[in-house]
User: Which sequence fits this backbone?
């Protein structure tokens, strides 16, 4: 259990979500604390994306309650949710950059449209440039999403997700469909954002190596690269693994417990370390 | 039986809910003026040529057909009267609406459908924007402003088409044709065919297009399906509303 002083960022209480009578999440409960990283594993259709969308208030549960930053999202109207969502960044599975806007406008979008951010107009362009530099896409401001490669679009979407410095960032399959080198670059950016901005991070993935990187590596800002965290411990946070099976949470715990599991379904997602 | 009715009833409920939100947002901030102007350009200016061409040929064909019928009574000189009444009350608003529906209801459904299946609508909500305010209301306003203008232009071009037939094929003078055109029209025609019908059709075109776009599921195949459904539903709705509005105006004018 986390220390008592740690602040709860996201809490699911017996959440059930269904579409057309088909359950997507069933009686799901967990709590994520400040600075924590959560890696959510599961087969396709196990409810991973639905979990993130429910956390954002994009999907309303049939039953149960979702608390983000201490506020009950399930009791809120859509307009009131905008305030809470400004504290969350989300990387969507297919990047979800707006086709009709160039990269600068895409990254500036949350700064200009989220009322609670209140970013002065003069600061918008510098912050956009800074966010794009962060993801090493400094020269793409005028380009449209269709002109970028899959990996570059994913990086631009990360810039859009973190440009407002949200304390909670949700990543939906950040490495899906990318080659191993680009996938590593994306994961390095994700860990860099987590360690530089000290964000609470939820990552949905089907690749165990992504979870392994999150749990055992940290960003060295002096060298500008990832390095192994000593004894698997990072300063300021811990990594919890969750495994979903047909909408149910079948595992929640640290990496050692995950790797020790003999459950056939859970073992499918684990490549044990040497 | 009840299960069969459940889906259409739910769809109607969702449509009414979307329409109510879109109308309510006209009075609520923020207003996305750039999007409204862009949609006015796409829907209005972009449809100008197709509306004018349709109007021209409708007017010309009406002049030819009516002159044959009127010739039986020795009243070919009344061709302008029939062309102007038919265009102003029926063909102008209905044909323009059908053209704009084919061009823009499908365009709206496919654009919003593509955004839906690529999670751009979810991203919009996640980034602090109400998709109805940002996407539906600007299209509703733009169509409601531009369709009456397009209808008036189509009516006028149609009357010009009728004039060309009257002058060169029926042997009517310009003064004779245009006098009968002008005298045939009264304010109820302008109100019915130039304002009321186009406004109702505009709401139908934009809201049905947005409705099918926003409920798209199933990838690119779903986008194609939504586009087709939007055009079919809009076309049928235009004919139904046309009959209802015409009945109301006919009853009122005796």
Assistant:
């Amino acid at each position: 259990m986390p220390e008592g002083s740690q602040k709860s960022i996201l809490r699911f209480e017996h959440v059930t979500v269904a579409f057309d009578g088909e359950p997507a999440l069933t009686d799901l409960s967990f709590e994520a604390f400040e600075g924590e990283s959560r890696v959510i594993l599961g087969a396709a259709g196990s409810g991973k994306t639905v979990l993130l969308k429910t956390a954002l208030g994009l999907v309303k549960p049939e039953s149960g309650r979702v608390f983000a930053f201490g506020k009950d999202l399930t009791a809120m109207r859509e307009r009131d949710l905008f305030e809470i969502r400004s504290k969350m960044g989300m990387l969507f599975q297919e990047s979800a950059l707006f086709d009709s806007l160039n990269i600068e406008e895409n990254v500036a979008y949350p700064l200009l449209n989220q009322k609670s951010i209140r970013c002065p107009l003069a600061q918008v362009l510098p912050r956009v440039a800074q966010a794009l530099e962060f993801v090493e896409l400094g020269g793409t401001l005028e380009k449209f999403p269709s002109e970028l490669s899959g990996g570059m679009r994913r990086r631009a979407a990360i810039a859009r997700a973190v440009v407002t410095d949200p304390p909670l960032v949700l990543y939906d399959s950040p490495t899906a469909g990318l080659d191993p080198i680009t996938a590593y670059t994306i994961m390095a950016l994700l860990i860099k954002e987590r360690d530089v901005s000290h964000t609470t991070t939820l990552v949905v993935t089907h690749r165990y190596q992504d979870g392994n990187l999150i749990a055992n590596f940290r960003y060295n800002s002096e060298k500008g690269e990832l390095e192994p965290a000593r004894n698997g411990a990072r300063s300021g946070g811990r990594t919890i693994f969750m495994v979903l099976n047909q909408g149910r949470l079948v595992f929640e715990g640290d990496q050692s417990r995950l790797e020790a599991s003999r459950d056939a379904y859970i073992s499918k997602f684990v490549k044990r370390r040497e | 039986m009840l299960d069969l009715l459940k889906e259409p009833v739910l769809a109607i409920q969702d449509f009414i809910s979307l329409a109510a939100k879109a109308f309510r947002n006209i009075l609520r901030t923020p207003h996305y003026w750039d999007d409204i102007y862009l949609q006015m350009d796409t829907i209005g200016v972009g449809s100008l040529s197709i509306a004018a061409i349709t109007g021209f040929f409708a007017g010309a064909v009406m002049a030819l057909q009516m002159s044959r019928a009127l010739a039986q009574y020795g009243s070919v000189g009344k061709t302008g009267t029939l062309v102007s009444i038919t265009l102003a009350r029926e063909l102008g608003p209905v044909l323009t609406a059908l053209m704009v529906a084919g061009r823009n209801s499908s365009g709206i459904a496919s654009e919003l459908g593509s955004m839906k299946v690529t999670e751009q609508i979810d991203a919009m909500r996640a980034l602090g924007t109400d998709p109805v305010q940002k996407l539906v209301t600007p299209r509703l306003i733009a169509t409601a402003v531009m369709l009456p203008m397009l209808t008036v232009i189509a009516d006028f071009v149609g009357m010009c088409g009728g004039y060309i037939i009257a002058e060169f094929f029926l042997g009517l003078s310009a003064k004779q044709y245009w006098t009968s055109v002008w005298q045939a029209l009264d304010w109820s025609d302008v109100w019915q065919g130039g304002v009321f019908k186009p406004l109702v059709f505009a709401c139908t075109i934009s809201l049905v297009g947005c409705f099918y776009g926003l409920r798209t599921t199933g990838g690119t195949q779903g986008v194609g399906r939504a586009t087709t459904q939007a055009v079919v539903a809009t076309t049928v709705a235009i004919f139904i509303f046309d009959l209802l509005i015409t009945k109301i105006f006919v009853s009122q004018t005796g």
